[in-house]
Fold these 4 entries.
Entry 1:
Amino acid sequence: MLSSLGGTQRCFWAIILLALTLFLLAGLLHVDVMFSPLFGDQAEGPPITNVMFLKTHKTASSTVLNILFRFAETRNLSVALPAGSRLHLGYPWLFLARYVEGVRQEGAQQRFNVMCNHLRFNLPEVQKVMPNDTFYFSILRNPVFQLESSFIYYKDYVPAFRDAKNLDAFLASPLTYYNQSVSLRNAYARNNMWFDLGYDHNAPAEENYVRARLAEVERRFQLVLIAEHFDESMVLLRRRLRWQLDDVVSFRLNARSQRSVTSLTPEGQERAKHWCALDWRLYQHFNRTFWAQVRTELSPRRLRSEVARLQARRRQLMALCLQDGGPKDKKQITDRHLRPYQSGKADILGYNLRQGLDNETLQVCQRMVMPELQYMAHLYAQRFPEKPPKDISFLEA
């Protein structure tokens, strides 16, 4: 018995000594523990690398796109990027394979690992450029707040929004402003998430039609995230894709300053649900299925723990990467290459990086704060150096 206890004690002290040795070596070798794998973070099985993300509008999807771009770049995966001078994959028209750079019109089709730029979903054409084992997912947002964001962001672009004093005025009499004959330009003004899925955003919200379309989405998309529960969504996404924690840690991108966010009256909110009835049904359905999947895979205690780990890692990286630890408005961003596109009446925030970062840390931090148009142009130049670069000079105006 005594010899057994002595052996246990020796094993304990050996483990302590080994841990101290590794810690001292890390200091001596200047190993940046900020980017070391976290204990207990190993996923079971290889990570999924064929991923199609349907990037809906004004749903925190720019942050998800950044996660996917980072994952693809650091692992040298191929990305389905817009062809030629395009900045998106044909939106608002239904997606066609030829909208992707590098796709041949005849013969064997090029397959890509990651697809995540804006497009209007068209499954047969998507399947021409994505492998059969692709993981499909998307993200939705409460359509009341999605419509409010769209109104501010697309105020000068969407015909239905231009003459409306504010969103409450628009929703009080939407048909005064909304013309179905220009529905492609007006797609942002009604049932925009339904439209992004490839469906008719002007269709009546009849029960049989809605149920059939919801069943289609459920069959095709293995996961639909919810923007209001972004961190819980990242926890579930990470589990499904078998990725590491750092793969899904992110900073908010393409977000507005609080002063450019407006509040709808209670009557306006109810009118928005009625005007965007298809989006409202879509959101309600997949909000339920999201939480059903969470409950199936994670106990409440485990979910809280996973969310806490994600948030702690985000705070750690924000302290490491960001000057003053938070977002800035356009005028405060010193590096013009990190200034996000400004649209409509929105005041889109970005980030300044801390000075004096070493090269490895700087690369990691730059990827995390790079706005989507700049990141897309960066990946395009890497993948197609022989082609003219994307013209995003308008960002410097």
Note: The first strand starts at residue 51 and ends at 54.
Entry 2:
Amino acid sequence: MLESLQQKDPPSEFDDVAEKNRKNQSHGLNRVDRLSHVEDYTAAQEEWDNVQTVEPILKSPQKEDLPISPKKYIDGTSSSPAKSPPTSPPPLPPNIRVTPHTDFDEVWDFFTRQDMSHVMGSIKPTLERRGVNGLLRSIFGPKKLKAELIDERNLLFAIAQCQFDNSEPIHLQILQTVYKVLTSTKVDCPRFGNHWDVIGFQGVDPATDLRGVGLLGLVQALHLLTHEALLPLARDIYRLSHDQHSQFPLMVLSINVTRISLQTLREGYLNKECNCRSNVRHVLNEFYAAVMFYIYWIWKTECKTIKDSGFLIKDAEAYCKRNVKTVMQKLQLHLRKYSQQEEGEML
């Protein structure tokens, strides 16, 4: 699937998802509305309707959303009459689960404590340097990674070799966090079902889309969605993915950007930045976000459609790989604009 995106014709997975959306829109339904029609939700629909949803996490906080200090309830000098603390919400039905959100740091800590020897033998963290081309690359090519950063780099490639495991709680927690942050829902969704199409997976099982990048495909999406500075960008990309003209399967795109990021790291183009920061994972995640922004910006400003996706991803890989510093600087400039907008709204 991932390799098909590099061919001349647009990848079939993008077209399939777009065709699904057009059919649903012709009956007056958008992608999110179709959740209520999935058979997996039929039995629990009434209970879901009674569960309070949370405020969208991608929404910028407003002053009126801030929690009220408990002092208001106990300070006798307050000009307003004393109020009773709000009552606790009723307990959830037994078949409804609310898994706590996780983030990249928690997931990274988990993997650093795991025995990854079963996949370390199959990773390919660097390109083999053979013959004249290998000699020229060693002389004129990217700098080598510092020795003290090799283990961290190898662990990232090892995570990319790990497949989704339904018996591992943190794997499920990552998947549920990605879904709930994007859709602004509170309760867990079923592990299998057509609802995964809402966030841009291809079928009823998201794990089938992770082939080629393994769990790292989910972990990098998790970083984009749970890193505070990146939340506004994540919100805009998700919104564009549901635009009637520009719509595209977000998670399919994200997985392809993870593949681009890994290949860029493998070819050594991120080594200079990693050496400067003495860190690999943060550089890889920032480069991933920079490529996502690069594709998003072109898609939006040039009014791209699904038919352009294959060419756009191929061009993005070639440009971003050769201009690492530039695309990362453009990302930071754009994030600062978000910050300035939020500061202006709070004044």
Note: The chain is about 50% helix and 0% strand.
Entry 3:
Amino acid sequence: MDRSNTFTYSHYNKDDNFYNNPDLIRRLPINDDFLPKQEPFPDYNNYIHAEDIKVKRYIGSGVTFISLLAENLLSHPFVVLRRQCQVHQNARKYHLQPFTLLPAVWRLYQHQGITTLWKGVGSVLLVKGISLGVEDVVSKVTPWPKEISSNSSLKHFLQHTMLKCVSLATVTPFYSASFVETVQSEIASEKPGILDVFREGLMRLLHWGSPTNGRMLPIWALIIPTITLGLAKYMFSMMVKGITVKILVARSKAKYEESGALPKDPYNSEIQDIQLTASLVATISTDILFYPFETVIHRIHLQGTRTIIDNLDTGSSVLPILTNYSGALDCYESCLLNEGVCGLYKGFGALVLQYSAHIALLKMSHWILTHVGNLVSPNPKKKPDVPVKVSPPAISNLTTSRRSYLLP
């Protein structure tokens, strides 16, 4: 074996004048395996992707919660204004556009304060709770499903329809009592208690065929129109939501196919956004389409209750509601005859204001939550610092331009 070019640690001492001999240094073997290297990160991109999905899910859940809050609480003042316009059969101003309501609302606030727009909110939530409770109880004591999907059989669909009918029929008397609380003027009526909706609802239920007041319609005359409207709105909303979801999912898939990367997780935050958008589109479409029929139902529910409402023609006075309809069909015909087609859309401007505020709130909350999520999520362009593993040099005071390391 030729040992002329072989060196051992025993050769490298000061006696051999190694440090001062550049020829020896140039002859040292150099192994690139000992150069500074960082460890690879095969799972770092997956980690970033998983964290990004988690943050987006939190954002989607937050926006969904805010939408639920806006639908049940923040929209109530617009519901109050809309209902007061719908039941005023002699109104001079129809308030079909949003800006015509603003002066009346301002004068209403000056005379009665901001709480007048929140009247009846407690009873409205109680009625919704009763409806959910009835559906839950009936679904447990019967084989009727509480929820259905596009894959459900015709039998399950019909059973689910019966469940909704029972729920609507049960809450009808309580809905009437709650509706009165939302439209009556606070300055001309006694402030109702929290549980008065149950007392008034039971009173209407007990007087099934003979109401206490002469013009008040019996509860059986209200149940059929209420069930018909409620069921039609529910079915239409479910249909629109299903179609909207399919359209948005198809657009999302097409977008990913163009980019050449399909998402691995089909239940990511984008599904939450799609569901939220579809629900909002379905709700808005349903309220617009069935608005005239809702006006009719509200008028027959209020008839004979001796309710005094705020006059939204001026915003500073009150007036009683006195009607004498024999039923829903008579109310519809009388409205067309005396008020025209636009009379069925009284207060439509309040509906526009309601959903304009709802959409603006969702946009703002999504923007805020997205920026907060960007602050707390890891930066994919910045990898964490990892210590560099370097083999200690055998010679520490070399002055050459390239660092050399000795093999053991």
Note: Residues 234 and 286 are 8 Å apart (CA to CA).
Entry 4:
Amino acid sequence: MRIPVGVDVPFMCRKNAKLRPNFCSLRCGLAVVMHLSNLTMITQRVSLSIAIIAMVNSTRQPALLNASADEPLVDALRDSSRSIKEFNTETSVYEWSPETQGIIFSSISYGIILTLIPSGYLAGIFGAKHMLGAGLLASSLLTLFTPLAADLGVSLVIVIRTAQGMAQGMAWTGQFTIWAKWAPPLERSKLTSIAGSGAAFGSFLILCVGGLISQALGWPFIFYIFGSIGCMCCVLWFTVIYDDPAHHPCISLREREHILSSLAQQPTSRRRSVPIKAMVRCLPLWAIFTGFFSHFWLCTIIVTYLPTYISSVLHVNIRESGVLSSLPYVAASTCTILGGQLADFLLSRNLLRLITVRKLFSSLGLLLPSLCAVALPFVASSYLTTIVLLILIPGTSNLCDSGFIINTLDVAPRYASFLMGISRGFGLVAGIISSTATGFLISQDSVSGWRNVFFLSAAVNMFGLVFYLTFGQAEIQDWAKERTLTRL
């Protein structure tokens, strides 16, 4: 089916509103598989952050000293230490300095940066199914080998984490190549939000059960369990996922025709050059990149320093800190899915234009967490209010998933994975800068340092919001359209 030039694609899709996705549709099944894949990758990424508490002597001792004010807790720890040592007689403990731990933690981010852009481009050429599946499989196998690498030396651990970052970089960005061919325009927010919420739920899961696994079985089993889950997820991935609906053996004829007709105006050529110069001059793209930079600035601070902030400001014990640190990810996962549902509802009912929906959710995802962050220093004396604000920051921030996060699918669907790689690169750079700046500010003075951290984060978010509202667009750019050659 070819759509005549000048006919609005969303309008044509509204004629097929009765084909809205349900839990029995194959494209929703793909979203669930991607949800599980993202959940698996984030648990593998965060596993070391949980396990290192038991792996390194210098991180155990402060925990015991901080608990000294609570004598029953100290006694419990002393009593349980014997049984833990007896059960885990072969569990190794390493003398890694805080500087070494910092290098280990950051190595995975550098690995992701190395493959974000090339993997997105290659996925668009050779197909995303095998690119993403290979990345997930490699990350899972490297997770399984992490305990052995730790025994062989810290240098090998850094190499393993860097390689794992490269594998996950392959798996993160290529997903948009699949959605460019599977997600009808009016369902993009819904499907991508279901898939993306796996990262938030995975963070919640690993924070909740990681410590329990380490206590009950030993820290190596954190890597063994989640690495094995990743390998099983790979089997599901290679079985269910296909690059496009036209070649999937299990899709119904009705669903295939619906997807292909809704994407009829989008190009299908596999081999093409990337118009770098046109991209560099495109302000709507820079609006997306700026949004990613602002979004990841505050998100990285919350992910990295949330347990530290809860411990230092609320003065809670280790067990409560772990539970409280996991709560924001429940809100983040919930808001991601609900935001996608609401965005597609507004589009399918023709209540708002596409660009209005993108800017609305971008505004909510940048403005609301900024207000919560600015308010935090003024409510530090209130336990309940502080917890509520800490939960709302990542929750409301994930509303951006229906805004500029998926905007590359609107402006340049042909190059969605390549541009997503660049966008996440901007986000990772923001995360490196923000985490470094946060460490410097709170080392000077805790109270004023945290206040400056949150004020600076709000300022960065406001800059990104204003830039996106000014230059953001939702129309396919001229350089992203397929050019038809006329032969004489």
Note: The chain is about 75% helix and 0% strand.
